[in-house]
Specification:
About 65% of the residues lie in helices and about 10% in strands. It has about 200 residues and is α/β, with parallel strands linked by helices.
């Protein structure tokens, strides 16, 4: 799988872990206090993937604020970074792309599931290029049509997070309040989902 960059919101004061995260492949936003972090989160929630809260020692998945792991006391920055990398490699993937969720939407029919994934990949593997072209031409209505279609298919694909990101963008496009960064965030995550699908249809 391609190396995917997550956006991490770090809350609390730990310069060692902040340095390690800054040197990783992930984008980092950090605040030392909860008030500033909360203000930032509610303005940018759809652009944040993971929350690391060092004040109450927990790691959360941003899109539904579900707790993934409690951070143990006494960990070194390096040990905490190892935990973060393990969570990204395993727990995050299961919440972003769930075969069991997809099958539950498809009456547990594996044949239909694999046909759906293959067809989706064939029809949408160039979606990023299409949306960037529409974005450069300021054709937001056409972008909204594509995003609405992806939203409708996302749970059948097994991605609750893709559904949430597409829904948020669709609502902003409907209100003519979508910014370029919102659209790029959708594109970036959709590319990530395509990588999951590509792996799944190879099996």
């Amino acid at each position: 799988m391609k190396n995917y960059q997550y956006t991490i919101l770090l809350i609390g004061n730990n310069h060692e872990i902040e340095l390690l995260l800054n040197n990783s492949n992930h984008a980092l936003i950090s605040f030392e206090n909860m008030i500033d972090a909360t203000d930032y989160y509610y303005q940018n929630a759809n652009k944040i993937d993971i929350i690391i809260d060092l004040i109450v020692n927990r790691i959360l998945l941003s899109f539904n604020q579900s707790e993934i792991k409690t951070i143990e006391d006494g960990l070194t920055a390096s040990q905490l970074m190892d935990q973060i990398n393990q969570i990204i490699a395993h727990d995050i993937k299961n919440k972003e792309f769930s075969k069991s969720l997809a099958l539950s939407m498809l009456d547990h029919n594996e044949i239909i599931y694999h046909k759906l994934l293959r067809r989706y990949y064939e029809e949408n593997h160039n979606l990023s290029h299409t949306i960037y072209s529409l974005l450069d031409a300021d054709k937001f209505f056409e972008i909204k049509i594509l995003v609405h279609k992806i939203k409708g298919l996302s749970l059948n694909l097994g991605s609750e997070k893709l559904f949430e990101i597409a829904k948020t963008l669709n609502d902003k496009l409907e209100l003519k309040k979508a910014e370029r960064d919102d659209i790029i965030h959708f594109i970036r995550f959709h590319e990530h989902i395509l990588e999951y699908i590509k792996e799944e249809i190879k099996e």
